[in-house]
Amino acid sequence: MKHFAKLAAGLFVAASFMATAASAQTVLRSSDTHPDGYPTVEAVKYFGELVKERTAGRYAVDVYHSAQLGEEKDTIEQVRSGVIELNRVSMAPFNGTVKESIVPALPYLFRSEEHMHKVMDGAIGDQIKKAFEGAGLVVLAYYDAGSRSFYNKQKPINSVADMKGLKFRVIQSDIFVDMVAALGANATPMPYGEVYSSIETGVIDGAENNFPSYDTAKHFEVAKNFSLDEHTILPEVFVMNKAAFDKLTPEDQEIFKQAAKDSVAKQRELWAAKVSESRAKVEAAGAKITTPDKQGFIDAMKPVYEKHVTDPVLKKMVEDVQAVQ
């Protein structure tokens, strides 16, 4: 009997320990406006799997895709205030909060996605990461968002003259508003989720984005003319609330940073495949893709740079970006 009592007591202690360990798991919430299966959503899921594995289940990540927690403007405030811990969001909405984020958002700054990777993976990317800490955020990773181009329901765009008078939805960013104005068009900042109906009803003529967003948001159904001007090659940021990050042990901080770094390679691979798939899909559905002469668009950006790149730090950063080969 004593043997069975000891065994039962041992099982009770083990069960209690397991229950305590299970209850000690910290579940972190992460937001994304894109649908399930989108490359950024899958990359954050992968990050969560690595974190869970490498912390022996002490941390887990729940990914809320499809703007379940709100549009980007809302979730940025949520992650800064600590309501949620993680967020995948475009860098442009931070332009008014983190001045260094202005540089990657500048139109026609990056020559290619490869150029952007070299810049963001190096010292300039580290400089921008450091600046985000002042906004209460830790940048864990930069994700690809490809190149953004204009699309509309009215006509093909082959030159700056074709932009005149058209109304485009843009990200809630002064740079994007000024970029569109410099091209002779009208900018309307609005949440991503409102774009389809706004084009359909004529509130706007079109928007600007990459092929996967043009596809997955079904904007190609209401705006058939896609102009491959590639005005921005703007990276996304995967951020964490700084207070939450600072609570991690140094060992766990390294686990989080390495898991995020590993997720970047995964996201880039998924992104490249998605771009090819989405372009083929929209073309098959009747989207008309044109490639305008970019020089006229680039020349029109002089007042945008003069307005937004006045700080000596930003001027130096732009020069450094352009010098990266």
UniProtKB/TrEMBL annotation:
GO terms for cellular component: outer membrane-bounded periplasmic space. It holds the Pfam family DctP. It comes from Sinorhizobium saheli. The keyword Signal applies. The keyword Nucleotide-binding does not apply. CDD domains: PBP2_TRAP_SBP_like_3. Residues 1-21 form the signal peptide. This is C4-dicarboxylate ABC transporter. Keywords: Signal.
